[in-house]
Design a protein that fits this description.
Length: 608
Amino acid sequence: MMARCVQGDRLDKALEFTASMMSTRDIGGLLSKIVDIVTDDFGFEGCDAFLLDRESGMYVLRASKGYSDDVRQKVDKLAKSADIVNADIDRCDRRGRFTRFYKAVPGDDPKAYYGLLHPDRATLARETPDSWHELDILYLVLEDQNGKIVGFLQPDGPRDGRIPSGATMVNLEIFAALASIAVANAEIVQQLNKSVRFYKTLAQTTARLQEPVDLNDTLRMIAEGLNMLVPFHEISVYLVDWERNLLVPVYATGPYANEVMADVGPITGLAGEVARTGKVEIVPDSMDDQRVEDIPGIEEEEVRQTMMCIPLKSKAGEVEGVLDLYRDKSNKFTEAEWEIAEPFAAHAAIALENARLREELRANFESVHKAFEDMKELDKAKDSLVNTISHELRTPLTTILGYLEMANEGMYGETSPKLKEKMHAMVSSVNRINALVGKMLEMSRLQDGTLTLDLEPVNLAMLAREVVKELESDVARKRHTLSVMFGNELPVVQADRLRMHDVIFNVVHNAIRYTGEGGRITIGADILGGRVHIWVKDTGQGITDEDKKKVFDRFFLADEGLAREDERVGIGLYVSREIVRKHGGDMWFESRDGAGSTFHFSLPLKQK
């Protein structure tokens, strides 16, 4: 019977729209759909929809239909206080739980109404008792699940010109009940979406803050995340330097960012109070609060804004900085927005602390890196000096050696036996210096990559025996037992003969030098994985754990105190290993302190 009341089949159609309405979760779209149904399917010329803004406690116009552009422009963002709305509803006749009606009486002031469909009719008398008058008001209240009014609809101007009654009012009552449910559901979904968006944004911002970025990027990410949930026009971040009593700006956005970044000053004003108290401050109008200090370069009338000033506390609870948010004073910051901003402020403080630590670490790293680069430059300069000196010494040494040998042979006349003995000693000294210069040049060429190998077929077995022959006097002097564990059967390799001779000489000579009198030295060889493997084992003093990592370093001597007594400079093993590596092989050792050492090197049977 209900569907066949005064509006005929309008309710059927309205209920179809109601089903659609109940599935709409966007509150703005829902209210637009509701006013469409009221006007199109219940036969009204216009309808307004107001919804309660819980933060401000005002009923705000959220949707409207049927009014002229002029009226719409006047009532844009219209808001009514809860007290005024409740007083208006109370003076209406109650037609149902959701429907209220005020029947205008002669003498009502047209100016009390914010919008009229037909202003010209406001002063006319009612034609008949059931005729609709321009100043009549119909309320369809919207309630939440607790029965509290959260909004209302104001249908206006029935197209049939009559005051809704009977079945029409029943249908409007039913529709208002359904609309209340739809609005309540949409608000719940909106709140859930807001919570999801908040936690999602917070999680995303937290994840991004784990990235190793600098302080400016960290603050930019915090500002972007916070602005998605608490819209603002500008943001400023200050660090608190308690020792120097300074507020130091580190980040700012907006048209006056440069002026803000230059505003280093004492811990005073609103930011200083927040820094000292650790409490949030919300300022409705920056021009009305004496604590808000002027920033040089900004005209006062240009910065009339609402502010939220938030302390940034470290993990220990100490205020490390202050975060200021700004926007137009017509849109004041609220406590609810502070509750949203609070976790971002906590994250900002931690991120700020971490970013500062990263910057300190980066600065320390850059300092160490610079020192390392300086050392490398010094090392290059030293190598260059060694190379230059070695080259410069080679020619005069050769000349001196030539003249000494000729004089020693009597080419410049007879010499006494005593002078001959002295000249022989000089020749030996010059030969040692010449050999040292040769090693230094070899090391220099290895360092700068200019060393080239003169490859030829080489029998390492015969080369090893040549070295043993050359060192016979040293072996005899220390009464060593030196054994060669192979004949001439080792495969021939492609190698630089002179340089491989020096490698074997250095390793065997080292074994003789570091093995006490009466010790044993063994030279062995085998074939391993397509390589010739040579090893030299001694029963000498061995190498300490501390010295093992430095054995192949340049200028390292295990017993450095002897460096100037036996003409050693500590580059033999370094040069030997680099020469072996240049042949495509490698060199290594095994040793125990007090139990001798074994040095190994291997060469590929075929050069790559």
